[in-house]
Amino acid sequence: MLEQNLEITVDELRHLVSDRALEGETMLLNMGPQHPSTHGVLRLLLELDGERIVTCVPDIGFLHTGIEKSMETKAYEKALVMTDRMDYLNNLGNNLCYCLAVEKLVDLDVPERAMAIRVLLVELQRIASHLVFLATHGLDTGAMSVFLYCFREREVILDIFEMCSGARMMTSFFRPGGLWRDVPDGFEEAVRSFVESFPKRIKMYEDLLTKNPIYTHRTQGIGAISSEEALKWGLTGPPLRATGLAWDLRKSNPYSGYERYDFEIPVGVNGDTYDRYTVRIGEMRQSLRIVEQVLDTLPGGPVRSDNRKFVPPPRSELGHSMEAVIHHFKLWTEGFPAPKGSVFVAVESPRGELGCYLEGDGGPKPYRVHFRTPSFATLQTLPMLCKDHLVADVVAIISSLDPVLGDSDR
Amino acid sequence: MGVETKLGNLGFVTTTLEKVVNWGRVRAMWPVLFGLACCAIEMMAAQSADYDMSRFGMELMRASPRQSDLMIVAGRLTRKMSPVLRRIYDQMPEPKYVIALGDCSSCGGIFNNYAVVPGVDEIVPVDVYIAGCPPRPEALIHGILTLYDKVENQKVKDWA
């Protein structure tokens, strides 16, 4: 494997670059996969005319982990841990998408309280993800302090996740049929104190960037795309909403009880890097509104379905119920069988439309799992967005699209 | 204050070459940025204000392997990425050290399939393994201090 020749001859790239590159008029430059501003292991092949980009060829797959294939070898409930590692900034969102798909496939009910807590945690995750976007976007456009502030607030959210599940990032907190367990004491206070303190923080980020001429010069009019083009390329999420189209699956196709909460869809005007930033800032505010509403209307009751054929019984029952022991044994050794058939469920992840296609073959393991990931669709617009911009703008454009390579390569 | 009080009025100190060189290496350890996946986010968190890795002289993450002597492999290493890892390791000047951050880079973690390399020690020699999926920032800091310990106790005959 190591003896592979890493050098790529110009001949192999002939169809990708313009004729001028072959005559030596323009320069071919490799960017990545180990580059601090490619957000992981994205590799770009840039054809440059001086500082201007003539062609930009993204090369993905450096983080292809075989997650979909691995999930086919695991029972439905155990395959869940794989989804955490896909889009590693939106762990709970991936859990939610997969759980909704399993629940739809086997027709499993979810208690009201579990649905509400799912919405709350996913919205907190959205804020955490946008904070990482803001941090890295700040770094890439030359604002180091934004990074430090954003990670400070992100720690507060991670502490809330740790409180619930015991893990900071890979929580696997949502399970088919509800949650792993109820949220602990002190959860509501922790979320409330975050909800109270966070609006001031958002204002602080805006003070640092929104009207800062150094920042606006580097982002306004850079990497713009129109609504029609964005739809044609399959863009979703903040990059699509930045073009002015208010498309959000939480509104248009509500899941997990989103129709009960009142929120707006922030949109941009020009679809450029700056608008993608403002849309995400607006989304953080809206997510906060949703979190507040969930907290105010949080219903009581169980957090797991009591359908014992799909959801393991609580540990306390194992001591005195033979039936519970049998269910526990069956579910953890074999898993539950799902009927033949396929489902597709899409949710709104911080990066766009995250879809899960699940096909059952009557056994306890999925026959096929496929994820429609937003970063994959987003990255294919990169050549168009980067065209005729400067090398330094490529960095700003990549970070404004906020791709996660684990999401696109999986 | 500082070194002057140790010197007395003689103007020199007696120590071993080993100690001086190892002291120097530990206090100027620059890691190369090699964020691959989830663990890279925790590596960034370790740099942030809450954990502040710069307390241990680590704030300088270099993007260039030529300027660094420690590689923190953060995340799962895939077959496609492994030649790149090796090339970057080869570009680093001696002496160089490797930390495998997280389960995936230590042993493949939860992934046992065609795509993931089961441990970066198949590609490069590893000095310190850090367990966790992903490890907490404290675990990364502990791993780095463990590496410091190892470097401080190096013998002349082992120097590369």
SSE arrangement:
The complex is a heterodimer of chains A (410) and B (160).
Chain A: H1 19-22, E1 27-31, E2 43-49, E3 52-59, H2 67-71, H3 80-84, H4 91-106, H5 112-140, H6 144-165, E4 174-175, E5 178-179, H7 187-209, H8 213-219, H9 227-232, H10 238-241, H11 249-252, H12 273-296, H13 315-318, H14 322-333, E6 341-349, E7 352-360, E8 366-372, H15 374-379, H16 382-386, H17 391-401, H18 405-409
Antiparallel strand pairs in A: 1-2, 2-3, 4-5, 6-7, 7-8
Chain B: H1 3-7, H2 17-27, E1 31-32, H3 38-47, E2 70-74, H4 82-91, E3 97-101, H5 103-107, E4 128-130, H6 137-152
Parallel strand pairs in B: 1-2, 2-3, 3-4
Helix pairs in contact in B: 3-6
Oligomer: heterodimer
Would you tell me the structural class of the helices and strands of chain B?
Answer: alpha/beta
Work out the number of β strands of chain B.
4
Gap from first CA to last CA of chain A: 21 Å
Descriptive account of the structure:
The complex is a heterodimer of chains A (410) and B (160). Chain A has a three-stranded antiparallel β-sheet. The mean pLDDT of chain A is 88. Helix content of chain A is 47%, strand content 12%. Chain A has 18 helices and eight strands. Chain B is of the alpha/beta class and 160 residues long. Chain B has one domain (32-154): Rossmann fold. Chain B has a four-stranded parallel β-sheet. In chain B, helix 3 (38-47) packs across helix 6. The longest helix of chain B has 16 residues, at 137-152. At the A-B interface, helix 2 and helix 6 of A face helix 3 and helix 4 of B.
What's this, in brief?
Helix content of chain A is 47%, strand content 12%.
